[in-house]
Amino acid sequence: MTTAAAIGARARASERNWRRRLGSLPTHVVIIILLVIWLIPTIGLFVNSFRPSTAVQSSGWWTILFNPSELTLQNYSYVLSQAGMLPGFVNSLFISIPATIIPLFVAAFAAYAFSWMDFPGRNVLFVAIVGLLVVPLQTTFIPILELYASVHIDIGPIQINNLNGQFLALWLAHTGYGLPFAVYLLRNFMGGLPREVFESAAIDGASPVTAFFRLALPMSVPAIAALAIFQFLFVWNDLLVALIYIGAANPQNAPLTIVVANLVNSLGSGWWYLAAAAFIAMALPLIVFFSLQRYFVRGIVGGSVKG
Amino acid sequence: MGREGLRGPRTLAFVVSIALLVAACSSGTSSPSPSGSTAAATPTPAPLPTPNPSAIAAATAYAQSLGHIGGSVSVLATWGGSEQAQFLAMVKPFEDATGVTVNYTGTRDLPAVLTTGIASGQLPDVAGIPGPAQMIQYANAGKLQDLSTMLDFNAYKAQTPPGLVTLGTVNGKLAGVFLDVSAKGEIWYDPKVVGDLSSSAPKTWTDFQNLITQDKSKAKAPWCLSVESGAASGWPATDVVESFVLHSQGPDYYNNWWAGKVKWTDPGIKQAWQDFGQMVAASYGGANRILTANFANAGDPLFTTPPGCLFLHQASFITGLGQFASEQRLTDYNFFPFPSINSQYASSVEIAGDLFGAFHNTPQSAALMKYLVSAQAQTLFVAGGEFLSANKGVANYPNSMNQRLGSIAANSASSVFDASDQMPTAMQSEFYKGLLSYIQTPSNLDSILQHLDSIQASAYSAQ
After folding, report:
1. What is the pLDDT of residue A302?
2. Contact B11/A at CB under 8 A
3. What would the pLDDT profile of A223-233 be if each residue is shown by its tens digit?
4. Which residue from B413, B439, B458, B443 is spatially nearest to B241, judged by alpha carbons?
5. Given A82, A101, A153, B335, which is the most exposed site by the fewest CB atoms within 10 A?
6. Residues B64 and B117 placed together within one structural domain of the fold
7. Superfamily of domain A82-301, CATH level 4
8. Under an 8 A CB cutoff, do B13 and A286 touch?
9. Residue in A with minimal Cα distance to B73
10. Contact (Cβ atoms closer than 8 angstroms) between residue A169 and residue A99
């Protein structure tokens, strides 16, 4: 009796389940089709990175299905054997990590001030910062190059006569380029934090600094992590800014992007190594992205819906 | 829900990234391809030919004569990959002998870096210059140093074709030197298809037409042609038109033409376009392939079975590109110079090359420029097999084909420089575009040439 009822209940439940799945089938099919379309170029690039250069030049990546034995690691071994690859990787880390942390800190302070502190001109300043979002960074190259050239620092062991070619030049430049968006995103997130928390903290005698470090900052971790991904990927993938500020002045400081771009000859031969180089360069950002991914989704949604 | 739902993709991502890293790291030690597979037969990137020790010794001896200097010099140029390796191999003896560190940066965004550099004053000591038009512009802005005070001018003048010295001179000052040249307008063929022509190359255009008629059945079409090259698409076609102009009208007419003193609607220019049009009509794959295939792969059908085409018109650097790079010189491909159309101009050759200038006159940059143009350093430079030297003193090329090409480029009695490269930028890009639309619709020739005339009227005065 009881077992029969249980079986019946299970059967009904599985039928409901089955119907529900059937109902969502079109959605899944559409999502899978979109995913495949979205991923095809990347898959093609990935496959090509394992094909010999002669094959890459003469046939499409899908031909690997009929001739899987041509897969080879020679592109990777060529790229990794090129001078400057490892220093480039280290330089990219040297550039990307401070150029991510500095703007995040500055932006967090600014966002807190813009959301919870009253000072004259607050809205005008905020609008000005948001307005900077539309300034193309290319227009800043020449004035900033001139500015960097006039920098003279002479403090004990630190002697800098020209900021161009130094890591510091890129840290500052990327801080400037990243700040408008960072302040904008963080202000919206921090502005959405419950007012009561800050009011009760103030009643308990917390100064704005305490409130920032003990309340605002921990509560904003999702948004900060999301921003960290954005900023890190931007800096890691950047070629132009690095080329302009480090460029010819100090090639020892050149990041991976410059080294990778140089795999191609002036007339364009050698492009078939770029797929392998791209996947080597991509490995670290992929790790960063996926390890911070759960913050990524929450951070973007955060600040958009209040309540 | 969030944690559970996300664990899957995260784990997957880590597996993927770790697999990538492992693949990247292990490739150095493991054998590059599974044994017994077809992939084992594919060539690995050919190692650069090593220059012979006596060439290195000669370059070192020359560098030692410059004395020990120390310090560093920054160099910016478009060379990447194997070209960069050859440049660094050339300057190695210089660095060892003088103690000067050469900081080389290669970028194909050279114009962008130099434009911002000129405006802000942040320039490398020594740099490649995109072309003669830019060199004149930088020199007139007072940015380029007078090289005749930095290097041994008399030696440079004696060892370099006079045309190149003139081309590098702006207002009586030597603003640019050529560290490498390429000979343009060679006709490439596969000796296995049309036979070895090295001793029986057609001397005149008529002979050449007869040869084409005779061998017509050996391939699907007489010519190979393709002109895609990103934003500069069309330039390979300009080279063909230039060859026709040079060999039918001569160097003076040619020089007046790029200088804007001969109209595009002039019969001599129009005839060259029509000759080019005949080549287009006789090309493998028709307009579609011509416009969409990359110039580097233009000659690939030469080597297919059955052959797609018999001949390819391209400069000396094609030997490092496309299918040429993996074929054997002399057995799989060879060349003969562009046949003469008007016997008066039979010895004329079109050349191109990479200009170099100095933005700062320091002891290090002066020593480097002196070294770079010397026959000793240039011999090292061409040893890699990719470059030809503008220096007549370079005797040792790594192979007989480069030897022949090098002597065509450096020793021709009358050489002219690539015309489109010397036109103002606006004129040059319209020249490219005009040819692309001519390939598409040959019947529009008159309106295309009239349009070029109207551009010519304004482009030169704006310069």
Report:
1. 53
2. no
3. 898 899 889 99
4. B439
5. A153
6. yes
7. MetI-like (1.10.3720.10)
8. yes
9. A249
10. no
